[in-house]
Amino acid sequence: MTVDADGLLTSVLDLDASREVLVPGARGNLLQLHPTTPTTGTAWDIDRHYRRTHTDLTDAESVELIESGPLRATVRVIRSFGASRITQELTLAAGNRRLDIATEVDWQESEKVLKAAFPLDVHAQVSTAEIQFGHVGPCHPHQHQLGRGPVRDLRPPLAAGGRNPATGRRCSTTPPTATM
């Protein structure tokens, strides 16, 4: 994993597959602020068009290596915008295939939603992401965004017949690109 001066990921290597996971030239863990002024209903109704406009939060107050040892490394990134403040700790542990990102947000904004973007160069037929009380695995040929929670699983193409092995549902055999 490589973190730049803005506290963004510029490289994430999958050591087992010997390949870069991020899209070439892209940066991961890019926080994006989207306006969510609903056309109808309340602030909890997020219209599909919210994705058309966003502000990339690239300016960091501080980026600091707070732990560096043989078993674990942690980088702390602090960002402020509007009246809000975000503190993130990116931790990579020895022998672990996962990057842990602990995020603490002092949210003082209204009619806005925050997204952490990870432009991944990963092609998978089945994905599983956390939601509040379980997990969801989209099975749609045009599903390109996993915005419900941490991604738990990105699997290779489906079994014969184009069926999701977990649900038995028939899916498209065209692999979507998963981005978060």
UniProtKB/TrEMBL annotation:
Q: Which InterPro entries match?
A: Gal_mutarotase_sf_dom (IPR011013), Glyco_hydro_38_C (IPR011682)
Which parts of the sequence belong to the Glycosyl hydrolase family 38 C-terminal domain? 3-136
Q: What Gene3D superfamilies does the database record attribute to this sequence?
A: Golgi alpha-mannosidase II, domain 4
Which residue stretches belong to region Disordered?
140-180
Residue stretches of biased makeup (Polar residues): 170-180
Q: Which Pfam families match?
A: Glyco_hydro_38C
User: What SUPFAM superfamilies is this protein classified in?
Assistant: Galactose mutarotase-like (SSF74650)
UniProt name for this protein: Glycosyl hydrolase family 38 C-terminal domain-containing protein
